[in-house]
């Protein structure tokens, strides 16, 4: 086997290693700074559309509590005007390992206070135990509509990323650096090593773009197993955003490397001429 053919085979292997390492490195960075970034995820949950759906779900469900207790729905809905327990609160609680369901005795107390204030203000006699039970039920409804139920899958994902991020980023970066060094050793001429390095980064760009594209398609037809449904759809949009970042980075890296290859080809052609 000739030296030229051997170098081509080795260059192909190194290109695959660089593309794999770069994909691993950038993938780790993307996941860490999007899906595992509190502010990134919270930005999706703080939207008016998500809040509106949660509020409407609460109004629809609290009507049953109102009918059973005889207390007008507007009394329970007053919680929406001064309560800071929002969808954004629920998702931030996951990152801070707090109660993502946002059900608490304090929330029960707020509903109980609203009920007793209404009943006392209208001179209506009531059974304290019954009002407390009504407040507990109302708090559970609020939790079902604004809290994140079954968040264990999301929490487990965050913990897994935290445990493996350093390893994936380090190994990925190493798999990028080693091929680059070997390219410089294999090809002493600048024109030759520029060509193979640009080709390797073009492969990396294509890899990131294809992963992003496939991820966008997959995330559009799947959703995590969390409740309520609006939260599952919101997480899916956040996942789509992360895959979109991968596709964009792939386009930038691949496009830049391809442009470098074209420039290199034109320079060599002009030198020959």
Question: What would your notes on this structure say?
Answer:
- The protein has 273 residues and is an all-alpha fold.
- The mean pLDDT is 88.
- It starts with a helix and ends with a helix.
- The longest helix is centred in the C-terminal third of the chain and has 44 residues, at 229-272.
- The protein is built from eleven helices and no strands.
Strand content: under 5%
| Residue runs with pLDDT of under 50 for 5 or more positions | none
- What is the overall pLDDT average? 88
Tell me, briefly, the overall form.
rod-shaped
The assigned structural class equals mainly alpha
The largest pleated sheet is described as:
none
- The rounded distance between the terminal residues' Cα atoms is 32 Å
Number of helices: 11
Number of strands: 0
SSE run? HHHHHHHHHHH
Q: Helicity, in percent?
A: over 70%
Radius of gyration: 28 Å
Summary, kept brief:
With 273 residues, the chain is mostly helical. It has helices at 3-33, 38-45, 48-69, 73-77, 79-82, 87-95, 105-121, 128-146, 152-186, 190-220, 229-272.
